[in-house]
Amino acid sequence: MSVAISGGSIADLPFFDGASPRSPIQLAIVGCGPRGLQCLDALSRNLSKDELAQVEITVFEPSTHPGAGCVYDLKQSRMLRMNFATQYIDFWKVDRDQTTSKSGSLIGWLDRNYPEYAASDQFVPRAVVGEYLHDCFEVVCKRLRRWTKLNVVRARVESIRHCAAGEANAEVAATTKAMTLNDDEGWWVWDGSEERKFDRVVLTTGHEGLRSSDEIQSQDTGAFVYPVENSLSEERIPAGGDVFLRGFGLTAIDAILMLTEGRGGTFVQGDGLPTYQASGQEPNCIAVHCRSGRPMLAKPTAKLEPINDRFWEPYRQTLSKHEASHGSVKFCRDIWTVVAEAASELLIRSGDAVSRRDVEEWFRGWSRYKMDDVSARKAMLQSYGVATGAREMDVPFALGEAWRQLYPQIVSLISFGGLAEGQWKAYSQTAAEMERIAFGPPAESVAKVLRLIRDGKVRLCEQNEPSQDSVIVNAVIASPHQANEDGPLSQLILRGDVQVDPVTEAVRVSESGSVLGGRKGLAIFGRATEGWVIGNDTLSRTLHQQIQNWAETIAVDAHSRG
After folding, report:
1. Are strands 55-60 and 266-268 parallel, antiparallel or unpaired?
2. Contact 71, 128 (CB under 8 A)
3. Is-contact 554 545, C-beta < 8 A?
4. What are 67-114's pLDDT values in tens digits?
5. Which pLDDT value is given to residue 178?
6. Strand partners, 275
7. Would you place residue 467 in the very low, low, confident or very high pLDDT band (cuts 50, 70, 90)?
8. Which of 510, 506, 496, 412 lies closest to 13 in space, CA to CA?
């Protein structure tokens, strides 16, 4: 078998040489949410049956439903909805041009299990998507177990440490077969009750549990939104009380809807905004504060006239030309002007004479100043009108659409240190604003929040000063660069086994996920690498090829042993 190694880094070179013993490769996958599941599926796709016979896989996942992870936990309230429409979720699709069976997509699965959700443009409960992912996990495990040994350990890994050549642990040797690897280098994985040695370890722990931002935690003792069953319970937030909510992103919208609709309130859809029928169990008022005052804008709905994909092709080609300049790409000159030009042309084709400079000027105005509550409410209402086709296309919609459609090319240009020195700040500040503009909540959720604002149940608050009797709820999630102090990633960084990029603060990895500048045999995928690899917070597998590349390196190792 001939297998190409992508990335060109020494970290991706085969871990074993020809003199290695022929015992199976011991592989640990630490954390089995969607990324861990993708690793298993990539192994099943890329390794032959003979190569799979040379690998023994141990999956460490504390939850009872591997594949789902904490974000798609099956036990969470059905009130917590997706921010990604049904038609875009297909676990089996790994390439943008790949044709997959509808029966394997989320919609096909919903048709069999929850037909009431089986349509495009649905934002289904996250717990339901968790069921879908867990079913995919079961399918992948069944496929793998035909040719390899796969063990699932229901435990949270507490630490991972490097094992130098010749290191022995007599106590462990007496109880674990892992010591059959003898003097090879590897990694010790401790799950709180047993320490086992592995040749290869993959860390896919994602959020490391849904946690509040460290910055927010330092300000007060307000509870974090999740788990909503505890933090937003009627015992903690009684009916008729006041709430002060810090943050106005997707997590805050989760909290608002849990405290209203989740307590028996009912939204009734009409021609415009829905009406709200209170249950009497809601708080008196939910005051919402965020530092910038800028809200998230509504995602477009299927009511809008679709834009032919050919429209975007010239802009994709323009961006792709900069691939040759990887490492010296200038964000504003090479990327942002193309996005703004595409947005301008989209508006011109719809009959609105808006130049690229007009688009850029609008964005400067949006991102430069703090927004007051009236302006924020107007921006949300305007975005809802455009998203549902009730209002004409405007600059923020066109800019958001251009960012979404050109995002794969942007990901490719910026990931793995693609930007020139000094360009990261311009990109990161723009990307943070584009999260609000391009990747906001479903229009339906925006409409509900607007109704609650009109009814006085929610109040946008410019001052970060909760009233004395308010219950404080923190709705800002930990950033990808705030590693859990009690988790294995934090320890690996402290020991120097994993290096953090000083510019992006992300874990540096090769194009096959292997950590750069550290020990061999350790790969990290997903959220911890955000910045070095951008665009991780999505269920889409078509944006990144690192997991596929990683599986190919495992194939090389396994092939050398066969």
Report:
1. unpaired
2. no
3. no
4. 998 899 999 999 999 998 999 999 999 988 888 788 899 999 999 999
5. 41
6. 268
7. confident
8. 510
C-alpha gyration radius of the chain? 25
**Region of residue 62 (phi > 0: left; psi between -120 and 50: alpha; otherwise: beta):** alpha
Strands (E), 68-185: 149-153, 159-163
- The strand pairing partners of 472, in sequence order, are 244
Max alpha carbon distance in the chain (Å)? Answer: 76
| Residue 53 in tokens | 């016979």
Q: Which two tokens stand for residue 414?
A: 């910026």
Say how far apart CA 533 and CA 513 lie, in whole Å: 10
Angle at 142 between CA 138 and CA 144, to 5 degrees: 115
Q: Give the predicted TM-score (pTM) of the model.
A: 0.89
Secondary structure (3-state) at 330: coil
Residue located via tokens 């084709």 = 349
Give 150-165 pLDDT, tens digit per residue: 999 999 999 999 987 6
Contact assessment for residue 197 and residue 163, using Cβ atoms and an 8 Å cutoff: yes
CA distances from 501 to 207, 369, 534 (A): 19, 30, 13
Cα distance between residue 340 and residue 408, in whole Å: 16
Beta strands in 408-468 (DSSP E): 458-460
Query: Looking up tokens 């993959």, which residue turns up?
Result: 202
Nearest in space to 296 (alpha carbons), one of 87, 475, 426: 475
Identity of the residue numbered 187: W
Measured over the CA atoms of residue 252, residue 256, residue 261 and residue 262, the dihedral's sign is positive
Residues recorded for the chain: 562
Contact 498, 509 (CB under 8 A): no
| Token reading at 252 | 């805050």
* Cα 163 to chain centroid, rounded: 31
